[in-house]
Amino acid sequence: TPINVQATYPSSFTVDSSLYYRDCNMPKCYYEALQINVFETGIYVLWSESNVNTYGYIYQHDFNPFEPLKNLLAEHDGKCNNGQFKLIIDLQVNAKYVLVVTTHRPMTTGNFSVFISGPYNVSLTNFSSKESSCIIGHLCNSYVKGIGLTLDDILQDVLRPNVMLNKQSFSIKISAALTIVMFVAGSINAILSFYVFKHKDAQQVGCGIYLLASSIISFLTVTMFMIKFWFLVLTQINVSTSTAVLRGGCESIETILKVCLYLDGWLNVCVAIERAIHVFKGVNFEKAKSKRIARWIVFILPFCITSTLIHEFIYRKLFEYQTEPDKISTGEFCPTPIWNPTGITIANRSIVGQFPITIFVNTNNTVYVANLEEGTIVIWDEHSVNSTKIISGNFNQPGSFFVTSNGDIYVDDGWGNRRVQRWSAETNTFAKVMNVNSSCDGLFVDINDTLYCSMSDHHQVLKRSLNDAVITSNRVAAGTGIEGSGSNQLNSPHGIFADVNMDLYVTDCRNNRVQLFQSGKPNGITVAGNTSINPTITLFCPTGIVLDAEKYLFIVDRRNHRIVGSGLNGFRCLVGCYGIGSQSNQLDNPFSFSFDHSGNMIVTDQENDRIQKFQYFEESCVTQRKLKRKPILEAENETPDGFKTELLIDNIIVMLVA
Known about the structure:
The chain crosses the membrane at residues 174-197, 209-233, 296-315. By secondary structure, the protein is of the alpha+beta class.
């Protein structure tokens, strides 16, 4: 057994574990993906101990369960080690590694532990793939290769979900153009052929009948190819397409296309055979007999071909294997989540500069922070002390930015250049996407690709659809443009959040409240602060906000130097609950925060020139899973006593420590 164990990770395969197609060969295998955080380069040994046979795979850069052979660095199937994987590998400090632990047989459950030994300290954290489900025509089709065209052969993995066609890659645009050209040319050819061979003069022999049928089949073939291409494109662009539609396309479109292709091929074979017989018999060739045979073949051939492909209709299924559920990034916390009140500094002024404002953490625990001193955006892995990328451009003093799921960054450049720019992760270039009159103190992109900008100097939130061709097409999302405390007014808005219903939450800093502007309504509802119905907390210039999956609020209470959140008993303090200061359990004018994949809270501690990480105590929720949290507006009616809610955090922490 290896010695000098540096990391241990116990877990289990259950019926709730993620499934994938192991090696593109073994279906429905439970798996768990773990990111290996390497702090020093060296030779490491990784092995498992389990009551079931395990396989181990190490990927470099990324792991996609729908492409299990891509980025594969090393693997072991447990042979010669009692059915437990064992990997010896050289791991580099600046590289990203993902360990995938899975089972030998499908649908096998059991406990397992992963151990790592080596010369230096390492850690294992849960890893979430960017893919969330398998869509027909997407990469999962690579597991069911057959004769004929597949969508993967045409487009591979260049399609980008939730991105309009005009913003897709050049190869997709070219493919779309070529598909349309093929359809038009094929349709013209089929129509002209049909016009020629429909006349009796062209049907003196069986060839004419074959070619007439072939012209009809050719038109059906190019039509089905057109349908198949656009089915993939549209279902990828609109990821909310219903499963029934995806399943219908999976089980019918490609099979029908195959029938058309095979039928057209066999009709051409029949033409060739008849011509050969005609040449062989010469004047003795019987035209009437050839026409009679042709009619029977044209009638019977579709049934014969369909019968050879009947297994396609029966066994072709839509892959719907879900990857590891992203519970934390969607905000599915338990009713009263708890964070360690003592923070850890993960970045200081040498990395993020003075007075860091905006922070963003994606589901793979990549941290984005704007360095105002250098005029850059610094990107690094949460578990690494070294930045992995520094983005610089022609932007001045960005007050905010927003990172989309495809890695594009929307950057405020209103202070100096009166605009918002988008940095493309694909091309590493900037482009203007919005004109503004001042800095955007909050940026947000909703699920419909609508960009929101909150302007504290103009007491207003503007928005524009990123799908609009005209950049100047800004609309008012909230506020009148005149400072005030009315329900339709704002006073120095900062952080914003738009939910799936297009309801907009705005931190109204100088009014010391959070306003909810329901979609299409100009008047807001105060959901946090003194002026809310039966208030449960006092805010002093809120600047950052996050909404969880059950519509519970997490707010940066800037001038009270803390982060607060709503729960079963109204609002309560979560971190920074010990007053202003520079100690590890204190904050000094925090501005924004973000959750990583594990639920840890990452905060910009502005006046302390640092980024603080507060660990999420997931074990504190074990006894709370059956509690039902109440919506925020109902929760405010439960505890009108603000002092009572302020004491909740102390009681919970005492219980946890005890």
